[in-house]
Amino acid sequence: MLPMRPELLKGHLDALLLAVLEPGPQHGYAVIEALRTSSDGALDLPTGTVYPALHRMERAGLIASDWQTVNGRRRRTYHLTPSGHAALTEQRAVWDQFSTAVTAILGRRAWPATV
Amino acid sequence: MAGHRLTEEASTLADARIDAYLGELAHLLRGPRRRRAQILAELRDGLDHAIADRATHGRAEKEAVESAINQFGTPQAVADAFGDELATAYARHTIAWYIATGPLIGVWWLLLLQPHPWRTGLLALLAAIPVLPLIAIAIAAAAGTFATTGRLIRWLPEASPHRALTAAMAIATLTLIGDVTVIGLYLSSTAVRPLAILAISASLIRIAGSLVTLHHATLMRHRIRPPTPEPADTRWHDARR
């Protein structure tokens, strides 16, 4: 599968990150890997896209982070806040509506020309 | 690095390479010190994981390190990617500093300009503050910027980092003018009292802080991308409409 350009995800990245964090806390690199593996490599997003997006979502109160020390190194893990859970539910509904509408148009094949 | 199959010697080489990479990045990041340190610590952990993944999949040590660093991007690219977040963090941090120092310094000036505030009414007390319009504008700018760069961005349009920095610079300028004005007014009207030394010293420190803020914010504003209008469907608050 071809990797998608990050700009194609504009407007959906927050929802994707919320969905990845829904099962439980993850650190930044695990989030990048989860996006890549769950999409069969299509969502191979650069570090410079994912980490700043996580920071912005934390500023917005959608996720929160904790610092732990693992093997002498500091590790930051992110988890959803109640607002994040609510936003994810809402974004799923928005996406369902959006994808149904787009599929209805893009998925339509041209009718054979009639004489 | 723990949790993967690098030998001790390779681990030392990998650490040295990562240190060099993060050292270069540290020189390029601009913003609050604590935030920069957090970004570097987080990327270090991410790189350790990326190298461990590659080593687990059979890559040679050196190749694993270089591949992981390539995945993260050049130090300049990573610094640019964090530019917006750091600029916003800097603006919020600076504005919080002004909010904290405002009442602390203001109370000394109020006691100097109105020595018996409890004997006068609130209006007389407010009228004794010579830079009241500047304070009002600064408070409005601070509140607006805090609201549109914090948790309320889920409902309000988010201020761009460019705009947040502009607001921080405006507040620094207003504070600078206010501090210079009150010092000038006080020194021209009355003899210096012991209490005035405290107030003047505090204002002088804040003037220096404002000049530093203006310098840093101007540099950061030149580094970040100019704001671009976004389509209406790319924001949480728009999705709710």
Write structural notes for this entry.
The complex is a heterodimer of chains A (115) and B (241). With 115 residues, chain A is α+β, with helices and mostly antiparallel strands. Chain A has one domain (6-102): Winged helix-like DNA-binding domain superfamily/Winged helix DNA-binding domain (Arc Repressor Mutant, subunit A, Orthogonal Bundle), CATH 1.10.10.10. Helices cover 50% and strands 16% of the residues of chain A. Chain A has helices at residues 13-21, 28-38, 47-59, 82-106, and strands at residues 26-27, 63-70, 73-80. In chain A, strands 1-3-2 form a 3-stranded antiparallel β-sheet. In chain A, helix 2 (28-38) packs across helix 3. The longest helix of chain A has 25 residues, at 82-106. The N and C termini of chain A lie far apart (40 Å). The model of chain A has no long low-confidence stretch (mean pLDDT 88). Chain B has 241 residues and is mainly α. Chain B folds into 2 domains: 8-73, no CATH class; 83-239, Butyryl-CoA Dehydrogenase, subunit A, domain 3 (Up-down Bundle), CATH 1.20.140. Chain B contains 9 helices and no strands. Chain B has helices spanning 8-28, 33-56, 61-72, 75-113, 122-127, 132-147, 161-189, 194-223, 236-239. In chain B, helix 1 packs across helix 4 and helix 7 packs antiparallel against helix 8. The radius of gyration of chain B is 25 Å and the shape is elongated. Residues 231-241 of chain B have low confidence and may be disordered. The chains are: A alpha+beta (115), B mainly alpha (241). At the A-B interface, helix 2, helix 3, strand 3 and helix 4 of A face helix 2 and helix 4 of B.
